[in-house]
Amino acid sequence: MRRLKNRIALVTGGGQGIGRTIALAMAREGAALVIGDLNETNASAVKKEIEGLGGKASALHADISNEESVQAMVEATLREHGRVDILVNNAGIFPTNPVEEMAEEEWDRVIGTNLVGTFLCSKAVVPQLLAQRCGRIISLTSGRAFQGARNGAHYAASKAGIIGFSKSLALELAPHGITVNVICPGITDTAQPRGHQSEEQIYAQGRRIPLGRIGQPEDLAGPAVFLASDAARFITGQTILANGGGIMW
Amino acid sequence: MEAKVAVVNGGAGGIGRAVVRRLAGAGYTIFILDRNQQAGREILDQLREQGCQAEYRAIELTNATQIKNAFAEILSATGRIDLLVNLAGGTLHKHPIQEFPISEWREVVDVNLKATFLCCQAVCKPMRERKAGVIINTSSNFGITGGAGRTAYAASKAAVIAFTKSLALEMAPHGVRVNAIAPGLTATARVMSRYDETEWRELGQSIPMGRAAEPSEIAEGVAFLASEEAGYITGHTLHVNGGMVFN
Q1: In the prediction, which pLDDT does B1 show?
Q2: How distant is the alpha carbon of residue B216 from its chain centre?
Q3: A1 in reach of chain B (CB within 8 A)
């Protein structure tokens, strides 16, 4: 039984890492995917991967921090499919700097991408979701939202902001049968932590995680598919922690 | 492949019946523990008619010896328990604190918290030995928000969350996941019997999604936490409440 049969799913940052894995998992469950990514080459590669599985996908260049780009992505999705059922707000950036040395431009870029981008993408799909009277918005946060990030105050703030935003949007959309939820990974085996940590440092963190290993992108795909499916239709405004017990909240 | 074994404590209750049906559908052999013998036999007959493997054991959940014996017997029959779902419990008594008899307060905490502890304790060793297993306890929206007249219930349900996190930390190195499900207002006969039709409708409308949960929707949350899809989730409380309380 394919749980997302005939659904249209839009995944931002779907060209790599967690976004790519969620997109593939949703495709396996029968959804047609739209992969939005700043890196169109990566997005196209994922589109081909999905097609290789016998699934349906399209790839788009999208900058979620830019309202026009977001509008164009959603319009292209609606032009192609006539609807959108699932939005996964996955795209995000994580530069590092202590607050003391943090340029305003960098602050604006992180908030503008991670938090404002989540707002812009959500806002852009809401009219269609309201018209359909169903839909799912799933956004990715981070353990940093709860515990802070040394040299990543903007990132932690943006990810905590996503939780507050999602709870509020959940309240706004609940009367219309649309759910809004958040998934919280721990450190995950993707390109992201490799920007500022060695391989050894990354895997060593698994020893401090109760389940004994760092996360794999697949660990987030199960919760994402569940939240997108009919089975989770009464779950809204929640933050699902899929982090090996690294943070319990 | 040998069927997985699920023990569902409170499996004959309103949510329990939906949970055992859902888990039986997922291929588990089901052991229902419940003090309500009539309801227990009814759900057992239904499951068997549908060709599911199921057993029922009558049990008083405040009785440590009965719990111990029931789990020992199940283990000797099956050799394994893959999943424990602790659903038994409830508000039971609702009084302002100045009128809350200590005996009733204790009863609420025993049924909701101590029974959960005892059942978890009974499966920890066999799960640790097999280096596999999933435990799902039941909290409530009241465990987060509290509720007037529900000092005992809210305290016990908040305690289930902290207990679940602690046990998750203890069991994680052994490959056992421990999580909680937190239903909000749920349309079971027991809960609905406390309200007249107008009250029930208004209560539903006060929830962001405009209605109470169906027991089957809680069962889906349990099935998810039990599944491999939740393989990296432990110590977590999953709220299924239509947006009435956020974690």
Answers
A1: 58
A2: 13
A3: no
pLDDT at A249: 84
HEC string for B11-62: CCCHHHHHHHHHHHHCCCEEEEEECCHHHHHHHHHHHHHCCCCEEEEECCCC
C-alpha–C-alpha distance, residues A113 and A69, integer Å = 12
Contact A232 B243 (CB under 8 A): no
3-state SS, residue A148: coil
Question: Of the candidates A171, A220, A240, which has its C-beta nearest B243's C-beta?
Answer: A171
Residue of A191, A192, A186, A193 lying closest to A212 (CA atoms): A186
Please identify among residues 102-141 of chain A the ones whose CB lies closer than 8 Å to any CB of chain B. Answer: none
Query: Which domains does chain B show, CATH number per domain?
Result: 5-188+215-239 (3.40.50.720)
ipTM of the complex: 0.91
CA–CA distance, B77 with B139 (Å, rounded to integer): 30
Residue with tokens 């009965």: B66
Taking the C-alpha atoms of residue A156 and residue A117, their distance in angstroms, rounded to an integer, is: 15
| Domain A8-241 top-level CATH class | alpha beta
Q: How far is CA B209 from CA A124, A137, A179, B19, B197, in A?
A: 22, 15, 9, 22, 19
Q: Which parts of chain B sit beneath pLDDT 70?
A: 1
CB pairs under 8 A between A and B: 105
pTM: 0.94
* A234, closest residue in chain B (CA to CA): B242
Q: Tens digit of pLDDT for each residue in A93-102? A: 999 999 999 9
What are B99's two structure tokens? Answer: 């009128």
